[in-house]
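Lab notebook: predicted structure, single chain.

Context: the supervisor wants predicted structures on file for every construct in the current expression panel, including those that have not yet been purified. This is the next one on the list. No modifications to the sequence; it matches the entry in the shared construct table.
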Amino acid sequence: MIFQGKSIQCHDLGDGIVELRFDREGDAINKFDAATVKELGEATQAIAQFDGAKGVVVTSAKDGFIVGADITEFGEAFARPDEEIIQWCADSNAVFSAFEDLPVPTVTAINGVALGGGFEMALSSDYRVMASKAAVGLPEVKLGLFPGFGGTVRLPRLVGADNAIEMSAGGGNVKAKDALANGCTDAVVEADHLLDAAKDLLARANSGELDWKGRRAQKTGPLKLGPIDSMMVFETAKGFVAGKAGKHYPAPIEAINGIQKAAGKGRDEALKIEHKGFAKVAKTTQAAALIGIFMNDQFLKKKSKGWIKQSKEIKQGAVLGAGIMGGGIAYQAASTGTPMIMKDINKAALDLGLNEASKLLGKQVARGKMDAAKMAGVLNNIRDTLNYGDFGEVDIIVEAVVERADIKKLVYADVEKHAREDVIIASNTSSISIDDLAADLKRPENFLGMHFFNPVHRMPLVEVIRGSKTSDEAIAATVALATRMKKTPIVVNNCPGFLVNRILFPYFFGFEGLIAEGADFQRIDKLMEGFGWPMGPSYLNDVVGMDTSQHVGHVLAAGYPDRMSPTEGQKSSLDLMVEAGRLGQKSGSGYYKYEQDRKGKPKKVKDPEAYDIIKPAVQETREHSDEEIIERHMLPMIIETARCLEQGIVDTAPEADMGLIMGIGFPPFRGGALKYADTLGLDNVVKACEKYAYLGKLYEPTDRMKDMAAKGESYYG
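Prediction complete. Output recorded below exactly as produced.
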C-alpha cells in the first residue's frame, strides 16, 4: 500500500504502475470535499516519493467515477470574502497541478459519470480512457458557477476553445463516443477492459510511442489561437450564449470571458484568472439561489425516500376519467413501469385518452428516445375500460374527472363498491377541499389529493394533499407512485387552493389591482417576464384558461375573504374576458389572440379588442413605476407563502419554494418566494409592504414576518 486514506488508496499494480483509486468510505459515490482534495495532495506526494514508479492510472471503485464537488460545503465557503474564495480555489488547484506535474505519465480510467471536479481531475492526467457507457461534463453553470478546479484552463487547451466553451457554458453531459470525437478522451472501451486499456496507454507512453510530455506541455502552455480566430470564436460564442442563457444567468458568459482572458497565458497564470472569475460568480445571488435549489431538491428526495420505505407495493394503478389529463397521467405511469387501467363512462373519452398517450409516446420515438417496440409495450400497459370489472386488482386509483364535487362524490361511491377495501383513492382536484370530497366516503383514511400540473409529462411537481382523516399509509403509497412516475411529490395539508394555487392567485390579484388602476397588461407581462417569469400574468391566464382561473379564484375568495375577495360589484378583467367568451389559448383569444406557428403551436399576437373588453374593470388611470409593478405582484406571493409555512400547510421553506419553482415556474435564479424574501431582506420586504397598506390585507405581512424582520432573521438561516 503506497497510500491509504478514507477516500483514496494507492496500490502498486506491478511493473511500476501505481493505481490511485477513489473509493469514498461509507458512501455510494465519490465526490470532492475538502478532505478528499487534501487526500489527493497527500496521495500525489506519496506517489512522487515511490521508487520505481513508471506511470499512474486513476480509477474508481464505485459505479461512477466522481460526481463533482461536495455542494454542501459551498454555503460556508462562498460566504467568505472574495480573497478567501480565490485562495480556496488556488489551494485546491495546487493539488490538481501537483498531480499533473508528476514525473511519470498518467491515465484516468472513467468508468461512469465524471462531472465537475471529477472531470477536472481526469483533465489533470495526461490521457483518459472511458467506458462505453460513461459520460463527462461540467455542469457548474446549472448552479450559477463555472468550473473552478482548472476546467476552463485545461479543457480548451485539450479540445479547442469552441468545444470547451460548449461544455463549460452549456453544462450538458458528453457521452463516451462524442468525447472521443471532440478529444475529451483518448479511447473508449467496454467497462471490463478499462484497466487494461489504461495500462496499454501507459505502456505506449513509456515506450515513446505516445508523446506524453508533449501532451502535458500542450495542456500547461498558452492556448494556440490567433487574434482573428480568437475574436471570432469568443465574441460569436458570447452572443449566442447570452441570447440563450439570458441576463439573469451570468455564469456562462463569465466562463467564456475567463477562457478568453487566459488564452495567452500558461497554466499557472491562467488558473489565477479562473480563480478570480469563480469568486465573482460564487458571490452572486443567482449562485446562492441555484445552489439552494440543488440542496432543496436533495432534501425533498430524502423526505420522499422516508415515505417510500413505509409504502405498500404498487403493482397496478388506475385512472378515472380519460381525456387529455387522464391520458397524460396514464401515459406517465405506464411509461415508468406502473400498469394502468383507464376508465371512463364513454368510449370517445377513452379514445381521447389513448390518443393522448399515443401522441406523447410517438414524440419519444421521433426523438430517438424510444423505439417502436417499447412504445407498444407502454401502450399495452394501459387498459381502457367502461366498467369496474378489473378494479379488484388495483392498488391505487387516481381520479381525474370533471372539477365538480357532486360528480366526484358519485364516482367515489361507485369505486368503493367495486374496489378493494385497502385501495388508495387520490383525487387530481386543483382546488376542491379534500375533506369535503371525503365527507361521504366509508374509508376516508384511504383518500387524499394527488394534484398533477398540466401538461403532466412536463411538469415535475405533484402535490400530495393530506385530508384531516388521511392515513400515513395512503400518503406513503401516493408518494411512492409519484416518485416512480419520475415526479417530485410534496406533501401538503388541505386548505383552499392547497399550496401552489393558494400562493399563485395573490399574484393574479395583484395583477388585477394594477389593471383597475389603468396599468397596461402587455407592459406588465413584459416586466414580469423580465423579472424572470416564463410568462407574464395575463399571458399565463391565457395559457391556464380564463374559466379555470376564474373557478379557482372563486374558491380562494370564499376561503380567504379578508384578502382574496373582489370588491363588491366590481368585475375583474378576468371576469370580463370570460363573459366575452375569450377563454385564452383554448378559444383562440384572451388577453391576446392566438395563431398557429409553422409547427402548429399557438402563437400570441397583440389584439386591440382586448383593451376594449377590459375597460369596465379600469377604475382610474395613473402611472406606475417598474418597481411598483414588480412589488405589487411579488409581495402578495411572499406573504401568502409565509402564511402557508406558519399555518403548517407545508412543513418547510424548501418545500414551499420548490413547489413554486416546479409547479408554476417561479424564476429558479431567485430560489423561490421565501429565498427571494431572504435575498431582499425581510426588513425591506416589510417596509415595501407598508407602501401598499392602503390596498388591504393582501399586502399585510404576518406578525411572524414582522418579528423576524425586527430580529434580522431569515427563512434559510
